[in-house]
Write a structure and sequence with these properties.
This protein has helices at residues 3-9, 39-52, 66-84, 89-96, 112-124, 144-158; strands spanning 27-33, 57-62, 100-105, 132-136, 161-167, 193-200, 205-212, 224-226, 233-235. The protein is of the alpha/beta class. The protein has one domain (3-9, 25-214, 223-235): P-loop containing nucleotide triphosphate hydrolases (Rossmann fold).
């Protein structure tokens, strides 16, 4: 398979057309799940898809080391390349590598203000200007509406597409009218796309429950799942 075919056949085309790129209006997406179900794997696959389409990606990892985040990218790219018989996989990986930057924060030092400051430094110094921003391990449990409103403002301010991963907790039963669980139950309106990972006992897979999607999504009866063995997104 060639790189162009990989882009067109990617299961993530359910969420966005293959020609989606820098000209698209800023969007904010949310991936929610209990701990350990595959949120980072989802974000990395979203990032790799964006990189393959020529976009620059900034991956903000909260509470995880730079090296561990790099390993996520290397392992998942290799799984994608092997599963699709990608031609010249090493060349493709080398080609897209400069389009990604990883930024790390300790859990107790992250804030939207600090992220904005570091982002502006990168852009103003002409070091790196991302088209897509991923924030993995984001804790918005204390004041979700305020924090996520700040995040939305950052998306619009810098013209970014942003994806955020947030942990849900089984013991917290709070939920919005449209089924979005805590801690984002009061802020669902701020997102264009919301995905909830849900284990399926009968199929032993993890369903990507697309609870909200922007108008450009081509859902039309399609569904996505996460293979718990490989953590790869597959069409259901």
């Amino acid at each position: 398979m060639l790189k162009e075919d990989l882009i067109l056949k990617n299961p993530l085309r359910v969420l966005s057309p293959a020609d989606q790129g820098k000209a698209v209006a800023p969007q904010m997406g949310l991936v929610m799940a209990r701990a350990g179900l595959g949120k980072t794997a989802i974000l990395v696959q979203i990032a790799l898809d964006s990189m393959l389409r020529g976009n620059k990606v900034l991956h903000v990892s909260i509470g995880q080391t730079l090296e561990k985040t790099k390993i996520w990218y290397d392992d998942i790219f290799q799984d994608i390349a092997k599963g699709s018989n990608l031609e010249n996989a090493t060349d493709v990986q080398d080609e897209i590598a400069p389009q990604r930057m990883i930024m790390t924060f300790n859990e107790d030092t992250f804030s939207v203000a600090k992220l904005r400051e570091r982002l502006n430094d990168l852009i103003e110094q002409d070091i790196f200007k991302p088209d897509c921003l991923l924030v993995d391990g984001f804790d918005c449990s204390s004041s979700p509406e305020e924090i996520l409103t700040d995040m939305r403002a950052l998306v619009k301010e810098l013209g970014l597409n942003m994806w955020i991963s947030v942990v849900t907790h089984r013991e917290d039963g709070r939920m919005s009218d449209d089924g979005v669980p805590a801690p984002c139950h009061t802020a669902s309106k701020l997102f264009d796309t919301i995905i909830l990972l849900q284990p399926q006992k009968d199929t032993k897979s993890i369903a990507l429950n697309i609870m909200k999607a922007d108008a450009g999504a081509g859902l039309s009866g399609k569904s996505l799942n996460l293979d718990p063995a490989t953590l790869m997104i597959i069409e259901g």
